[in-house]
Amino acid sequence: MKKLCTLCLALYCLALSAGNGFLLPDIISNNMVLQQQTGVRLWGKASPGSVVSVKGDWSGETVSVKVAKDSTWIVKLLTPAASMQKHTPLQQA
Q1: What average pLDDT does this structure show over 31-50?
Q2: Is the pTM of this model over 0.85?
Q3: Residue 71: how many CA atoms within 13 Å on its side-chain side?
Q4: What confidence tier does 20 reach under pLDDT thresholds 50, 70, 90?
Q5: CA distance 76 to 72
Q6: Of the candidates 38, 56, 43, which has an alpha carbon nearest to the alpha carbon of residue 2?
Q7: What's the chain's average pLDDT?
Q8: What is the DSSP string of 54-83?
Q9: What is the pLDDT of residue 19?
Q10: Which DSSP symbol is given to 2?
Q11: What is the sign, positive or negative, of the torsion defined by CA atoms of 66, 69, 70, 71?
């Protein structure tokens, strides 16, 4: 079973914090569906040496990674079991 997770606003906020030059692949978008109870890999490009942080609205855990010299980054975000709970986008602090 798959779980609907809203990550678009969270990734947008993440993009703002990473500065100019932050890019996500087209496959990562609003209302994307993630497999439940797995480690989902999210990736993109940003300024080398900057730090990218990702947080799902279902978890209090933030996953951070330093951007490589070739401008790429990848994080593994753990997803919960399926439920009927509605998920909402994260708000920028």
Answers
A1: 88
A2: no
A3: 9
A4: low
A5: 14
A6: 38
A7: 75
A8: E--TT-S--EEEEPPTTSEEEEEEE-----
A9: 52
A10: E
A11: positive
**Is-contact 46 67, C-beta < 8 A?**
yes
Instruction: Give me the pLDDT at residue 7, please.
Output: 47
User: Is residue 21 within 8 Å of 49, Cβ to Cβ?
Assistant: no
Q: Are 73 and 67 in contact (CB under 8 A)?
A: yes
Structure tokens that stand for 79 in this block: 């997803």
The residue with tokens 């079973």 is 1
The answer to whether 77 and 42 have CB atoms below 8 angstroms apart is yes
User: What is the pLDDT, as a whole number, of residue 84?
Assistant: 81
What is the pLDDT at residue 87?
Answer: 66
Give the span between the Cα atoms of 8 and 32, in whole angstroms.
Answer: 8
For residue 24, give the 3-state DSSP assignment.
coil
